[in-house]
Amino acid sequence: MPSWTIHLAIVNQVCKEIRVPNQNIFTFANLMPDIFEGHNTPNPSIVVKDYSTHYPYRETIHGMKVDMPDVKRFQKQYQAQFQNPVILGYYTHLLTDYYWNKQLYENHYEMHDKEKGLLKITLQEHHVQIFPFLEIQKIKHRDLHVFEQYLRQHRNIEYPCYDEKIQIWSQALQEFTYTNEDIQKTFQYIEETMKHNQEMVEEIYQLYSKQELLNYVNESVEMIKEAVLESIGI
Fold it and tell me: What phi and psi, each to the nearest 5 degrees, are found at residue 23?
């Protein structure tokens, strides 16, 4: 769920607070589960369906059946390979997505009318409204866009740099094959879109508060630090 800017803000802070081997590759790998979804990387070698790059399983929260990253399955499958910075970064992306999705669905969404596709949404100051899911998604995405703007202005986001070893390390992933072209196109997107041409929007939040999102960032940092230290045996 978090955007790449949010993922980078989190992993940047993690790398400042603990020593992570191959930080640049680890940072880039925090974006890799999203490459084949086709939203950011232009024309990847494959486009997947049904969130499959995130090892999904179905969880019911407040009457909604939602796909969540199966962090435990990934951890079990790759537990002997966490010295690989791509495996470690991929894992921490899944951890972050799981945490942010869990907070969203538990704190803000509730099924209201399944047949009509209506959800009850809890906005700021506990104000409750009922919207179709797609309308709620628009509200959420605008809030996150506002927050990304804040992060770019105040967190000095550090972007990863291309390294030919990324593709080599990525070969350990069993389900998906990342080509060097996929990786280069992703860096092209980072350079042309994430670093530049960012639309400025008015800083108004509807679903979240800025402090709530900042808390999520800080809590994600602590969670990932603990997971990294445990996974690589520091």
Answer: -55, -40
Pair of tokens at residue 23:
């930080």
Report d(CA 30, CA 89) in Å as an integer: 5
What does DSSP assign to residue 193? I
- Written as one letter, the residue type at 19 is R
One-letter identity of residue 184: Q
* Nearest-angstrom CA–CA distance, 90 and 88: 5
* Spatial CA neighbour of 35 closest among 176, 131, 220: 176
Backbone angles phi, psi at 120, to 5 degrees: -90, 125
Close Cβ partners of 167 (under 8 Å, ≥ 6 residues apart): 178, 179, 180, 183
- State the Cα–Cα distance between residues 234 and 229, nearest whole angstrom: 5
The domain in which residue 129 lies consists of 4-231
Q: What is the pLDDT of residue 234?
A: 57
Could you tell me which of 138, 140, 178 has the C-alpha nearest to residue 48?
178
pLDDT for res 197: 60
Beta strands in the chain (DSSP E): 56-61, 64-69, 109-113, 118-122, 128-132
What is the chain's mean pLDDT, rounded? 93
pLDDT digits (tens, 9 = 90+) for 36-66: 998 899 999 999 987 799 999 999 999 989 9
Name residues of the chain where pLDDT drops below 70.
197-198, 234
Q: How many domains does the chain have?
A: 1
